[in-house]
Amino acid sequence: MNNLELLAPAGDIEKLRIACLYGADAIYFGGQSFGLRANASNFSLEEIKEATLFAHSLNKKVYVTVNIIFHNKDIDGLVEYLKELERIKIDAIIVSDVVVIDVVKKNKINLEIHLSTQASTLNKEAAKHYIASGVSRIVLAREASKDDIVAIKKATGVELECFIHGAMCVSFSGKCVLSNYATNRDSNRGGCAQICRWTFDTCESDNEFNMTPKDLNMVPYIEEMIEAGVNSFKVEGRMRSIYYIATIMHTYRRIIDSIINNTSNNEHIEYYLNILNRCANRESTPQFFDKFPGVDEQYFRGRKEISNQDFLGIVISNDTYNKKVVLEQRNFFKVGDVVEFFGPNTNTTIFVIESIYDEDNKLIDIARHPQMIVTIPCDIDLKQGDMMRLKMFDKPDDL
Question: Which domains can be identified in the chain, with CATH numbers?
Fold first, then answer.
């Protein structure tokens, strides 16, 4: 179990820092070329260098996506880009098109190659082919079952990476042409318009139709995934908020560590499930791992996606001597609210807000202005970057 990795997404530098601090072992993101998230901020070469230096200073790894399906015109500049990534000393690239593998080998570029989930690997023979081509890790298709994982691991021994949390694609591991058809945006080159999230009219005037998969959530099966041979546990969400990234990393870090330390139990798992289900705005399910998904794993007749307002603030500084914490407000909160603080090195702690001071040190009853700076009397030993959220669930006594 010593080579287990929790892998986080990052849409920008701020999210990368949060992911690193909140428990990720490695981070993946796209550059401004050749990646599949055109709507994310993405990273310039200078930002990739900055991100890599920061991650490496914390002994975290960095993987850059080069995973579009290439048309002829897309190949221009690829060699130069890969050589820049080599100079920056990222830890690996994530690729889906064999042209990238060939370019790396032909030009003797010293980059470790991970095969993207976009390659839709579901069988041991395909895995063997890619390993022989120079791939050191395979990100399995999201449709992989436990039996698929076990068989591929047994036949190859290769490092396996699997998604454990986040959005699913209605198509087969991203091979969708609905976006191209409806909006002329190519989902396989980073422009997906997420047509599967749309609501469609039907011939029945009072009915609507969805074909939206529920999100992936593998909390109940992490231990089985470890036993099946998964090395890297990947979270989807480069477009998500810092609160989402912090919550997901913070939770899965504790799940994986408790399994390693043999301290996990059903009460803990139920608590973690509640936290994660509250964090997202869609229902979640294990999808393909334990069975073929059916009607309960997808939305058909409408859905509600209401973003919660749980994220209340982020700690700017903490004066332990005077017992005051300075926060940047993120959502409405008021005197009397029951909240909880959590952070990378801070136990989740319940707290009742008794008073709030604004930037002019004047007492206020409510923090209602986005990103206003406020001070709260508080005797908890908090750290910069810790977060405050609404108190949601009763935490087990031994957590």
Answer: 5-299 (3.20.20.380), 311-390 (2.40.30.10)
